[in-house]
């Protein structure tokens, strides 16, 4: 599972005054995403006690947690995530996310896609729950 955190990345200074936490350094993900397009950029919220429907799609999808703690499950791995974490969901990987507190969760989300625009955005999937990795 690929989870990166701004808390663990040493910032660099760009444009003289901009502190940058490079979670994917420039050009480091080019080879994996060649031939794709930016499908969407969103902010989503999930209320406490709810869960994103398990699903998959032919995209590299990224969640950057803004508020709340959650568990993200990708295929047969699950992990606790918190604000400042960036989760990469690989192409066609079954996944879901759900809050672990009574606050719910809010995240910035975007995807680079290989899907034809006429197709449905995602396919619902069975995703047997697994215990999150120990923190």
How would you summarize the topology of this molecule?
Elements: E1 2-5, E2 12-14, E3 18-20, H1 30-33, E4 37-46, E5 55-56, E6 59-67, E7 70-74, E8 77-81, E9 85-89, E10 95-99, E11 105-113, E12 123-124
Antiparallel strand pairs: 1-9, 2-3, 4-11, 5-12, 6-9, 6-11, 7-8, 7-10
Overview of the molecule:
The protein is an all-beta fold and 135 residues long. It has one helix and twelve strands. The strands form four sheets. The protein has a five-stranded antiparallel sheet, with no helix packed on it. Strands 8-7-10 form a three-stranded antiparallel sheet, with no helix packed on it. A two-stranded antiparallel sheet has the order 2-3. A hairpin with a 3-residue loop joins strand 2 and strand 3. The radius of gyration is 15 Å and the shape is globular. The mean pLDDT is 93.
List keywords for this structure.
135 residues, five-stranded antiparallel sheet, three-stranded antiparallel sheet, mainly beta, Jelly Rolls, 1 helix
CATH class of the domain at 32-115: Mainly Beta
CATH superfamily of the domain at 32-115: Jelly Rolls
Distance between the termini: 14 Å
Integer-rounded radius of gyration: 15 Å
Order of SSEs: EEEHEEEEEEEEE
Task: Write down the CATH topology of the domain at 32-115.
Answer: Jelly Rolls
What overall form do the CA principal axes indicate?
globular
Category by helix and strand content: mainly beta
- How many beta strands in the DSSP annotation? 12
Stretches with pLDDT under 50, minimum 5 residues:
none
Proportion of residues in helical segments: under 10%
Give the strand line-up of the largest sheet: 1-9-6-11-4
What's the tally of helices? 1
**Beta-strand content:** over 45%
Main sheet specs: 5 strands, antiparallel
Mean pLDDT: 93
């Amino acid at each position: 599972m690929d989870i990166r955190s701004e808390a663990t990345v040493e910032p660099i200074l760009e444009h003289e005054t901009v502190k940058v936490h490079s979670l994917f350094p420039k050009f480091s993900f080019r080879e994996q995403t060649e031939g794709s397009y930016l499908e969407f950029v969103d902010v989503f919220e999930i209320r406490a006690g709810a869960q994103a429907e398990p699903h998959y799609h032919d995209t590299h999808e990224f969640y950057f947690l803004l508020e709340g703690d959650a568990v993200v499950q990708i295929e047969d791995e699950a992990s606790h995530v918190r604000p400042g974490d960036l989760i990469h969901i690989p192409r066609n990987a079954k996944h879901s996310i759900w809050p672990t507190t009574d606050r719910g969760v809010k995240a910035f989300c975007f995807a680079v896609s290989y899907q034809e625009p006429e197709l449905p955005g995602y396919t619902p999937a069975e995703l047997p729950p697994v215990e999150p990795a120990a923190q």
